[in-house]
Design brief:
The protein has helices spanning 3-15, 21-33, 70-73, 81-92, 130-146, 158-170, 204-207, 214-229, and strands at residues 51-52, 58-62, 113-117, 152-156, 187-189, 195-199. It is an alpha/beta fold.
Length: 232
């Protein structure tokens, strides 16, 4: 199996997806109406593919693209404040070549990291409907299946945590007894040896209220670095 070719084929499929009428209408309307500060830019306005490669040792799972972030730039966590937090942390711990992500052509490269999300379209008010999560979950499941060299998975937020657990359970992975309850900074060893790390999402709701500090966020990525660098 050529995981890279299969991964690239999957990303092309994702970009063409129109399964969720509400999300299609919203992402395309935002791309046409724009906001004043980005008035002169052409928005992506389509589902946003994963960023990175399937041979990554670290997989980071977010919620969904931001309306004027990934939906504008066409790259996960790019062009918004959540991305500022994420890529600064990835850079600090050696998973990226630069600490900022502003545009799809800004020169950012990931090193042994794959950044993806529960949903690929920006949702109104950043809220996904259960049916929209179900429609998109298969894409994440297939990406995780192709990421056969992963040693650690970071889930950003409770929704990403719950969706990831649902994928495990549907595959028949035994999770009973692992104490899998979402809390920031928690870590579990899954039956296949992959480490699952939980973090609050770096949304403004969490970062501007002080619910999550940079120190708290960096601790998760520091731990991921140690896991990735450790011999199996």
């Amino acid at each position: 199996m050529n995981s890279i070719a299969d991964f690239e084929k999957l990303q092309r499929e994702i970009v063409q997806c129109r399964k969720c009428p509400r999300l299609v209408e919203w992402r395309e309307r935002v791309a046409l109406q724009k906001v004043r500060r980005f008035r002169g830019q052409e928005y992506w306005g389509r589902p946003v593919p994963a960023f990175g490669a399937p041979d990554a040792a670290l997989v980071v799972i977010g919620l969904a693209p931001a309306a004027h972030g990934g939906n504008r730039t066409g790259r996960m966590f790019t062009g918004d404040s959540s991305g500022d937090w994420l890529y600064e942390a990835l850079y600090r711990y050696g998973f990226a070549n630069q600490p900022v992500s502003t545009a799809i052509d800004d020169g950012l490269l990931l090193r042994g990291c794959l950044v993806t999300a529960v949903a690929r379209c920006a949702p109104p008010k950043n809220k996904l409907l259960p049916a929209e999560i179900r429609n998109c979950r298969g894409y994440l499941e297939r990406e995780l299946g192709l990421a056969q060299r992963k040693k650690a998975v970071i889930v950003l937020g409770r929704v990403a945590f719950q969706v990831f657990l649902g994928i495990l359970r549907d595959k028949g992975v035994q999770t009973v007894g692992l104490g899998l309850k979402f809390r920031h900074g928690a870590e579990w060893t899954l039956p296949d040896g992959v480490r699952l790390l939980a973090s609050y999402h770096p949304s403004r709701q969490n970062t501007q209220t002080g619910k999550m500090t940079r120190g708290m966020f960096h601790t998760v990525f520091s731990r991921a670095r140690a896991i990735v660098d450790a011999p199996r």
